[in-house]
Amino acid sequence: SELHQLHRTAFHFQPSKNWMNDPNGPMFYRGYYHLFYQWNPYAAVWGNISWGHAVSKDLVHWHHLEVALAPDQWYDMYGCWSGSATFVNDGKPVLVYTGWSNVPSSPDRKVQMQALAMPADHEDPLLRKWVKAPQNPIVTAPEGIDSNFFRDPTTAWVGEDGKWRMLIGSQENMTGLALLYTSSDFLTWKRGSAPLHSVDSTGMWECPDFYPVPLLGKHGLNTSSNGKDVMHVLKVSCVYDYYVVGTYVTSNDSFTPVQADLDAGIGLRYDYGKYYASKSFYDGNKNRRILIGWVNESDAEKADIAKGWASVQSFPRMVWLDPHTNYSILQWPIEEVESLRKTKVSLESLPLGKEAIMQVKGIKGAQLEIDVDFQLPEQIQAEAIDVSASNVELICSEKGASRIGVLGPFGLLVLASDDLVEQTAIFFVIVQSKDGLKVLVCSDQSRSSLETNLDKTSYGSSYSLKGGQTYLNLHILVDHSVVETFALGGRVCITCRVYPTKAIDQAARVFVFNNGTVPVLVKNLVIWELADVLIDTL
Ligand code: DQQ
């Protein structure tokens, strides 16, 4: 229906139609960014998985190309699953992906194995045609590993000995595994003597990602970089995208998390909302590391079929190590978003007393970038609420945006109708937890749409309130049915999907509110309307 098409995004990447999931093989090559993605060319549900392909000069304006990999070989006949790009031999790109097939000897048993593809013509900057290696499959499941749990090869990197290394996601007796493989020629791969990392009871590790970040600075590093000023990030996807920062010693391929209690699969998350199977790449064009993640729908499958499409990719984010810790990363929308900015409104020093709510005038629509600083009062008064990683989401929903609190809830309502019956609330609450003062960051979707049959789960996370911290920042991208929140300078990210029926397009409004009894101040607020990005086909 027409309403459904209004939920299509304006500047988040989408295929022309049908189902999409994981981003695959992102890279910058000869002037173009390439994005591949898990795509069903024939329906708006998962299946027939091929690698869709698009290129861009700026990671914002995309052009669709023909399918790069289709399930047309015996070893990938049921699907070309996730994988990564690596530059080999003088910067020539190759793709390694997972083929889903069956074993010729027992046709009912599905298996996963890794396959290699090369550009038909690496002089073509668009890399339009890909050729699968005659040697495929290049890696099959080793002894003791279930071939149903053997997938999603990472970008490869070179170790001290000059050999290539890559990770493959797996599990053994519910222990999540990042299996290490080494090679001299990219065709023959040998299993390392131990996995690079594993964590008990975390289940299958899908889509591992492993990359270096500088100890200091925001710049990106080539995936093979290492040294004393370098830390490594390991991300795995198991229900959510979890990451852990550690030190990686290439001489013995040991990876040691700096904080054992924040280990992969149990600790920090890239995003506390809808965000999965993400992948990063080193952007040699702008010397930074970029992260892209799959943002699934929150509506029912039959709604996806009706609208003819499902899923978007997150807006590309830059990632770097938080200079205040050595165990967490920061994320921020890439600066290219600025090229989309149109009308701007801003305001300063707006006091918000108890139960204050105010519409931000002069701006409307469902395509916005918002930046706001809330100033905290000198005297912090906090409700006694004990928050932990396991209860924070529940607290965000039980203590939603409309409740009267003490210092918070205060924040923004986006995609709000004039009468406020529809609204998506992004807000803060200051709480006194057993382990100190915390800021709750919540994304409350409970009133986001009058439509039922949607998953309106609230999302959230918490962060320790530092002594001397005087303001709290929210940076938000709103794009019709996606709201991506970067809170506290990119320390906490939350992405959600919402499907308003009234607060659509030009009828969508923004409000600031404070439902705490303690007054807060909007120190400054800036909102830009963002332009459409037309994704064409080359
Ligand atoms: N999606 C792919 C798999 C991967 C999963 C299949 C993660 O390769 O493990 O479409 O979403």
From TrEMBL:
PANTHER family recorded: BETA-FRUCTOFURANOSIDASE, INSOLUBLE ISOENZYME CWINV1-RELATED
Natural source organism: Adiantum capillus-veneris
Gene Ontology annotations of biological process type: carbohydrate metabolic process
Residues making up the signal peptide according to the UniProt record: none
Record-stated family: Belongs to the glycosyl hydrolase 32 family.
PROSITE patterns: GLYCOSYL_HYDROL_F32
Keywords carried by this UniProt record: Glycosidase, Hydrolase
InterPro entries in alphabetical order: ConA-like_dom_sf, Fructan_Metab_Enzymes, Glyco_hydro_32, Glyco_hydro_32_AS, Glyco_hydro_32_C, Glyco_hydro_32_N, Glyco_hydro_beta-prop_sf
Domain Glycosyl hydrolase family 32 N-terminal: 12-333
Alphabetical list of Gene3D superfamilies matching this protein: Exo-inulinase, domain 1 (2.60.120.560), Glycosyl hydrolase domain, family 43 (2.115.10.20)
Domain of life: Eukaryota
Database matches in Pfam families: Glyco_hydro_32C (PF08244), Glyco_hydro_32N (PF00251)
UniProt-recorded name of the protein: Beta-fructofuranosidase
GO molecular function, one term: hydrolase activity, hydrolyzing O-glycosyl compounds
